[in-house]
Amino acid sequence: MTLLSKKTISLCGMLLWSISMLWAQGERRSSVKLQTAKYIIQELYVDTVDEDKLTEAAIQGMLKDLDPHSSYVTAEDVRRFNESIQGNFEGIGIQYNMLTDTLYVSQLVVGGPAEKAGILAGDKVLMVNDTLIAGVKLRTEDITRKIRGKKGSIVTLKVLRKGAKNLLTFQVVRDKIPLYSMDAAYMVNDSIGYIRVNNFSATTGKEVKDALINLKTKGMKHLIFDLQGNGGGVLASALSIGNELLPEQELIVYTEGRKSPRRDFYSTGKTGAFREGKLVILVDDFTASASEIVAGAVQDWDRGVIIGRRTFGKGLVQRPFDLPDGSMIRLTVSRYYTPAGRFIQRPYESRESYAKDFIERYNRGEMSSADSIHLPDSIRYTTLKKGRTVYGGGGIMPDIFVPIDTTYFTPYYRYLRDAGIVNKLSMELVDKHRAEWRKKYPTFALFLEKFVVTEDMLHRMIALGNSADVPYKKEEYEQSKTLLMHQIKGLIGRDLWGLSEYFQVTNVLNPTYLRAIEELQKP
Fold first, then answer.
1. Which of 103, 216, 279, 506 is most open to solvent, judged by the fewest CB atoms within 10 Å of its CB?
2. Which string of b and e fits 452-468 if b means at least 16 CB within 10 Å?
3. Secondary structure (DSSP) of 289-346
4. Catalytic residue among 183, 285, 300, 495
5. Cα 274 versus chain centre, distance
6. The one catalytic residue among 124, 158, 209, 314
7. Averaged over 285-292, what is the pLDDT?
8. From CA 239, how far away is CA 233, in angstroms rounded?
C-alpha cells in the first residue's frame, strides 16, 4: 500500500486542527462536517476528483430530501430557463424543422432579422458561417447554438431556394427575438372566443390582455381559456391574468411559509379585459402551478366553469438563488393557497412516491372515470359565492369531468407520430406546394373550408412509415385516419400561416374543447 506523502499528512493535520478549533468555537457542526468530507475526498481519494462535479453532487444531495420541486439548475439550463420566463432570446427569428437532415425554414418572425435580410419560408439552410450543417447529422441543439448569438453580431447563412440555380448568401444581424407563450387566439363562432396559453412567462399577461381586447372587437361575449398541458411559470403572469378575469379587489392567491409571512394578492384596477361574460377554463393532468392558481381562483369565486381532468397538483412556490458560476438553486420557500384556502399540492413523502402517485392516477382509471377519484372530507372546501363543494390536496378538480379520448389512438398512430412521420409529410408537402397553395387559398378561412387531405397524401405517409420501420396496419390505420388527416391539415396550416391555425383545425377533435362550446351555448 502506498504511503501518504508528508505534505498530505501535514495538510490533513492542519485541517483537523482547524476543524477542532471551529468546533470548539461553536461553529455549525454540520457545515464543518461537510467541508471536512469534501476536503478529504479531494485530497485522499484514489483517483482524480472533479471538484465542480463533487460540489454539484453535494448540492443535489442536500436538495434531494426536501421536496420534489426544490432543485439545482446548471448554468446552461439557467440560460434556457431565463429565456423561457423572460419571453425573448437573441437570434435571427426563424422557426425551423429538420427535413431529410436539412434545416428547413417553416416560419419567420415578422419584422425579425431573417425576414429583413431576405430569407423566405421554405428556404433550406445548408451552411452557417462556412460550416456545413446539412447532411452531417448534427443535433438540433447544436444547430440552434450556431444560429443564435449576441444581439448585433452577424451570422452568414448559405441557403438553397427552390427555383434558384445557386446557393444564396445572407448576412443576418442577430437581435432580440420574442418568445410567445400564447399558442392560439381566435373566434370559435360569432360570440365565443378561444385562447390557448402554453406557459406563463414575463410577457404572458400582456399577450392575453391584448388577445382579449382583440377578440372583443370581433364580437366575443364568452371565452374558452385553454390551459391544457400548461406547466405554469411566472407567478406575476398568473396574477395579471387573474386581474383580467376577476372583479376588482378579489383575492387571487395567497402564499405563506416558515420564513415567509402570508402575502395576499388581489385583482386590481377597474379595466379588466374580461370580467363579464361566460368563462370556461380547460385543464388536464399536466396543468400545473401558475395555471392552477388561475383555475383555482376562477373556481373559488364561481367566476367560471373548469372542464377537463384533475390538474397536476403543485402548490409550492420556488425562489431562485443565483450561485457564483451562473448556476442556480430553486428552493421552495412557501406554499400557495387558493382564495378559499385550498392547498392543492399533492403529497410528497419522497420523490419516488411523488412520481408514482402521478402514474397511479392512470392505473386507477382516473383519466377515464371521475368515479375512480376518492378524496377525503378533510380537504373539502366551499366556493366563496355559491357555496359549491371543491377539494384541495391534489390539484384542481374540474366542475365538469371529460375523460381522456382514445377513440383515434392506436399503436400504429403512436409509432407514426413518434417517428416524426406526420411532421415529415407535412413539411414535404408544403415544400412542394407552398406557392401553389398560397395562391389557391389566399385566406386561412378558405383553406379551412376547402382544403382536403387526399388519399395520395395518406399513401405517401404510409410509404414514409414503411421506410422508417413503421409497418402499415390496415385496421389501426382506418381507426386513426380521421385524426391523421386533421393533424396533417393542421400542420400544413401552421406552416402556411401560424400555430393558431393549427389549433383551429385540430381542436374539432378535442372532446374537452367541444364540451366547453356545448356549455357556453346553454342558456
1. 216
2. ebeeebbebbbebbeee
3. THHHHHHHHHHHTT-SEEEES------EEEEEEE-TTS-EEEEEEEEEE-TT----PP
4. 300
5. 25
6. 314
7. 95
8. 12
Instruction: Respond yes or no: is residue 300 known to be catalytic.
Output: yes
- Name the residue with higher pLDDT: 412 or 51: 412
Q: Check whether 372 has a pLDDT greater than 70.
A: yes
What pLDDT score does 1 carry? 44
Of 249, 235, 340, give the one whose Cα is nearest residue 294: 235
367 with 404: CB under 8 angstroms?
Answer: yes
Burial of 369 (0-12, 13-18, 19+ CB in 10 A): exposed
Active site annotation includes 314: yes
Q: How far is CA 467 from CA 414, 459, 470, 478, in A?
A: 16, 12, 7, 20
What is the structure's pLDDT at 13? Answer: 55
Between the two ends of the chain, the Cα-to-Cα distance in Å is 87
Nearest to 404 by CA among 355, 364, 372, 369: 369
As given in the structure block, the three cell numbers for residue 384 are: 366563496
Contacts of 337 (CB under 8 A, 6+ apart): 253, 254, 255, 256, 315, 343
Q: Is the pLDDT of residue 59 over 60?
A: yes
Select, from the ranges 92-96, 249-253, 427-431, the one with the highest average predicted confidence (pLDDT).
Answer: 249-253
Per the CB < 8 A criterion, the answer to whether 425 and 492 are in contact is: no
CA–CA separation, 134 vs 128, rounded Å? 10
Q: Contact, 160 vs 185, CB < 8 A?
A: no
Q: Three-state secondary structure along 468-512?
A: CCCCCCHHHHHHHHHHHHHHHHHHHHHHHCCHHHHHHHHHHHCHH
CA distance 476 to 484: 11
289 an active-site residue? yes
- Out of 70, 267, 289, 480, the active site residue is 289
